[in-house]
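Give me structure tokens for this 292-residue protein.
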Amino acid sequence: MERPTPPLHASRWGLNPEITFLNHGSFGACPHEVLAAQAELRRRLEAQPVDFLTRQAPGLIDEARNTLADFLGADPAGLVFVPNATTGVNAVLASYPFTAGDEVIITNHTFNACANAARYWAERAGASVKVASVPFPISNPAEVVESIVAEIGPRTVLGLIDHVTSETALVFPIEQIADALHARGVEVLVDGAHAPGMVPLNLETLTAAYYTGNCTNGCVHRKAPRSSPFEASGGPRSGPSSSAMVRTRRSTSGVGSIRSSTGPERPTPRPGSVYPKRFVSWARSPTVAGRA
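Here you go.
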């Protein structure tokens, strides 16, 4: 098999030229310039740890947050950095004011660690999780919206929806989904782990209550160092629950990623369908706590 021609900017990465590296979604490589910037920050830290951590770091974090907020179209005051996107999802679910009988909607494309987190926090409060079966592949984006809306009931309070699905690489029409759920009084938590840098984002106009994502998975031209996820807040509309502080919780992408026996069925290709075009954490609260 003939090896493909290296991309124009391949020299900016330290990837082995003998390997055609495809999985930038799980553990993408960093460009040389990002690694050099990291090394410089580590040098400054080691040169004077107390000065760096107590005097320099807060301003550097604010600068990074402002830059990221501009890129995402988000309010910097509602944007925080978290260990990974799954931690952001977990933090929102852990803080959500579920009551007995409430329902959470996920889909059969939901990243399994996030699906497990939804079940765990819902069940603790006596709530339940409903799985919307989104076909795979889809013939048009409306199928996704219709599949999710069909599961909304009188006790549905939250939808945990992927922006770009991890296992099936579908780009969900997140604006239409968020609008449809918002119009029915349902808040939306978007798992956008793979979206930043892959698809355009304007979180201030998105009607989702919460958005969590990574700067490492989807970002190719604006590649960030590993462990650069975010959670943000703000936007045109917010429900009463999203004004509460989101508490700190730790959950990594690996923890809970093994499919449970009660997990949603994975989507299977539907005969006669066509594949669609393939198309970080954000909450609508001015008081979102940092994650550990």
